[in-house]
Amino acid sequence: MDNHAVGCQWMPELAQIFVYPIKALDGVAILQTTVLPSGALQYDREFAIVDAEGNVINGKRTAEVHRIRSSFDLETRTIALRIEGEPGATTFHLDVERSAVEQWLSAYFGFAVTLLQNTETGFPDDTNSPGPTVISTETLRTIADWFPNLSLEAVRRRFRSNLEITGVEPFWEDCLFGSAVGEASLKADRVVPFHIGNVQFAGVNPCQRCIVVTRDAMTGEPYPHFQKVFVAKRKETLPEWVEASRFNHFYRLAVNTRVVQPQAGATLRVGDTIALD
């Protein structure tokens, strides 16, 4: 048995599910979710905020987005918006009062924005892998230990993964991508099939991170030398069984996925077991 197979011998289960209805804003913890035919999770990144030129407003481009607090009720399709540190949230219906949401956001940013909607794929960063991102609780806990004054919840908010798994060692999710060869190694389609409950996914690649994770998710305040420390620790703690060919750098965490066989109404639930095929 190879080192990769040995490292992946665990019995994980799905511990938490998060969706982020408006890209770049706060997430919602839920107990179950529908997997859309595209592989995306229902409601995840369903909306994106864009400026007049069509540029997506997110943490990469606009640090002010971090200070927006958003609470969603997925059943009633409502959103409550406020600014971090300020009282008095305003509640809107996402479908009926969308123009009012746009006006609130435009006033906050100081320039006109609109909300785009895509109920089929959402607005993933990796359009070739629109499935949920996967990470383990122990991975997040380990990263919190790298940084004084960062809690598990603070790290969870920074990395914004969809599916959190438990019952495994730190970085177990690195089992979910395979080796790659050649100049296009990081784009090579060497996937690892796995099941969560009855839904089959393919793990594609370790997710490349951006400036967003270096900032406090609530205030936008940068953590000094976050990327430098993260890269050094990620390299130092990379399990020996990991397919290192997928790392052109070590600023990568969590796994991008796609669905293998689309099926209508496929459902993921907290407590589902996870198994490599």
Describe the fold and architecture.
This protein has helices at 3-7, 98-109, 137-146, 152-159, 226-237, and strands at residues 13-19, 28-30, 32-35, 47-51, 68-73, 78-83, 90-93, 113-117, 134-136, 163-166, 192-196, 199-208, 252-259, 266-269, 274-276. The chain is α+β, with helices and mostly antiparallel strands and 277 residues long. It has two domains: 3-17 and 127-276, M1 Pyruvate Kinase, Domain 3 (Beta Barrel); 47-117, no CATH class. The strands form five sheets. Strands 2-1-10-9 form a four-stranded mixed beta sheet. Helix 3 (137-146) crosses helix 4 (152-159). The two termini are 15 Å apart. The mean pLDDT is 93. This is MOSC N-terminal beta barrel domain-containing protein. Pfam families: MOSC (PF03473), MOSC_N (PF03476). Residues 98-277 form the MOSC domain. InterPro entries: MoCF_Sase_C (IPR005302), MOCOS_middle (IPR005303).
Assembly of the depicted chains: single chain
Average pLDDT confidence is 93
Strand content: 25-35%
Q: What is the number of domains?
A: 2
Order of secondary-structure elements: HEEEEEEEHEEHHEEEHEEE
Q: Which strands sit side by side, in order, in the main sheet?
A: 2-1-10-9
Backbone CA Rg: 19 Å
- The first-level CATH class name of the largest domain: Mainly Beta
Uncertain segments of ≥5 residues (pLDDT<50)?
none
Largest sheet: 4 strands, mixed
Q: Quickly give the structural class.
A: alpha+beta
Domain MOSC: 98-277
Protein name: MOSC N-terminal beta barrel domain-containing protein
InterPro entries: MoCF_Sase_C (IPR005302), MOCOS_middle (IPR005303)
